[in-house]
Amino acid sequence: MTLKHVLLAALVLPMPAFAQVAPDARRSAIVADVDARTPALAATAKAIWGWSEVGYQEAKSSALLQAQLKKAGFTVTPGVAGMPTAFVASFKQGSGPVIGILAEYDALPGLAQTTASSKTPIEGKAAGHGCGHNLFGAASITAAIAVKDWMVANKVQGEVRVFGSPAEEGGSGKVYLVRAGLFKDVSAVLHWHPADANSVSVGKSMANISGKFRFHGVSAHAAASPEMGRSALDGVEVMDVAVNFMREHVPSSTRIHNIITAGGEAPNVVPDFAESYYYVRNVDPTIVKEVWGRVTKAAEGAALATGTTVDFEVTGGVYSMLASNTLAKVMMRNLESVGGEQWTAEETAWATQMQKALPTQRPLTSVTDVSPGERGADGGGSTDVSDISWSTPTIGLNTATWVPGTPAHSWQAVAASGMSIGVKGAVVAAKTIALTAADLMLDPQALADARAELEKARGADFAYAAMLGSRAPALNYRKPVPAWGGK
C-alpha cells in the first residue's frame, strides 16, 4: 500500500456531527468520530506493518503519520530533538491545558512474519511489528484528530499535541524529547500499548541501560601463525563469562542479557573485531547504574586478559515508570465505557488456530473484559515513556490486540498486529485516549491533582538526568556493524 493510497482513504471519510460539551453528548460524538475514522486507522496500521521499519529508520512510517495530521489541520514540526523521524504535531485553540499523546512506529529486527496463524517468515524481510507499534501510531493520531474535531465543534480552549516517538525498542527516542524540554508545558501525557488484555497501565517498568562493547585485536592465520593474533572474539567471550559469574552477586530482580553482533567471518582467521550488545535492567535506576559499571569493568578485564582493547557506547537508557494514579482513574472510567473487543466468527477461528502455538492459553473471550492494572506490579519490560512520566503526569493503557496468552516480541504478536483483531484493539485505545483527553481538557482540578501527585512521588530534590547521559541520539544503533568495526 502506498502513502498516496492511505492518505486518500483518510480524506474520503465523512466528518461526524458533534453535540455540545455535555458529558454524554461529548462521549457519543468522540466515539462516533473514531468509528468513522476506523478504515483510515486500519489502512495506516497495515501500511506501517508492511514497511516494518526499525528504530531511527522509520522514514515512511513517520511521514505517513505526519501527512495525515497535517491534512487534519495540525501544525507539524519534523526532525525534533536531533532525530530525523521524530516529530511534534499540534492543534491549539486559545489558551488552556496541553494534552500530549504519544505515537510509536518502530519495528523489531528478526521478526518478519505473515498474518498466518502458524509461523511463516517473510522471505527476504528482516523486521516485523512484534510489539504492535504499527497499531500504536495509527490509533494515537486517530485519537488526536478526534479530540481536535471535538474542540473545534465546541470551541474548547486548549491544545492537543502529538509526539511522534521513534526508536522505542532500545533507542530511547523519548529520552531525547524529554532532554530537549518538549514536555515542560504539557499538562498530561497519554499513551497506550498493544497487548493481550484490556487494562490501565499503573504498574512499574524496569529502568535500563544498554550499550555495545567493541573489542579490537590483531588478525592472523588461525593455524599457521596463531601466536601473531589477538582475538577480539576471545575478548567478547571472556567478558561474557565474567558477567555470567557476576549474576550471582547482583540484586535478584536485576536482568542482564546480551547478544554477539559481530564475531568474525571465518574460523581460520583470528578476528580483529568483535562486538557484544548488552542490556542491564532493574526497577531501581540506581541499581542499574551500579551494575552497568561492573559490566564495563568486566569488559576492561576481558580486554586485559586477551591482549585486546575495548571501547563501549551507551546506546540507550531509561527510567522506571511513575504512572499517575490520578489520571488512571479518569482513563479507567473511559476504558470501562468503551468496553473490550468483539470478534467475528472468522476472527475467533483464526485466533483458535493461533492459540495452539502459544505456550500459555487463556480464554479467547477474555478480550471482551476490562480490568484495572495491578498497582506496584513489575511488568518486566522497559519503555522510554518512563522518562516522560518523571517530568509530566503520564498514564497509559493496554488493549487486546493479540490472542490471549501472546507474548510481546513474538511472531504471534507480529501476525495479530497485521490482522483485523489488532485493529479492533487499536480502536478501543483510540476511543479511550480521545475521551480521556477531552475529560482532562475540561477538568483543571484533575490536572492539578496529577501534578501534585507527581511532585510528591519524585521528591522535592529530584533533578532529571538522562540514564544515557548527554550523548546524541544513537541513529545507527540498528544498522549492521561492519566486520572490521568501522562506522
TrEMBL record:
Keywords: Hydrolase, Signal
Domain of life: Bacteria
Residues annotated as signal peptide: 1-19
InterPro entries recorded: Amidohydrolase, Aminobenzoyl-glu_utiliz_pB, Bact_exopeptidase_dim_dom, Peptidase_M20, Peptidase_M20/M20A_hydrolases, Peptidase_M20_dimer
Stretch list, region Disordered: 357-385
Domain Peptidase M20 dimerisation residue range list: 209-301
Family annotation (Gene3D superfamilies): 3.30.70.360, Zn peptidases
NCBIfam families xref list: amidohydrolases
PANTHER family to which the protein is assigned, alphabetical: PEPTIDASE M20, XAA-ARG DIPEPTIDASE
Protein name: Amidohydrolase
Species: Sphingomonas psychrolutea
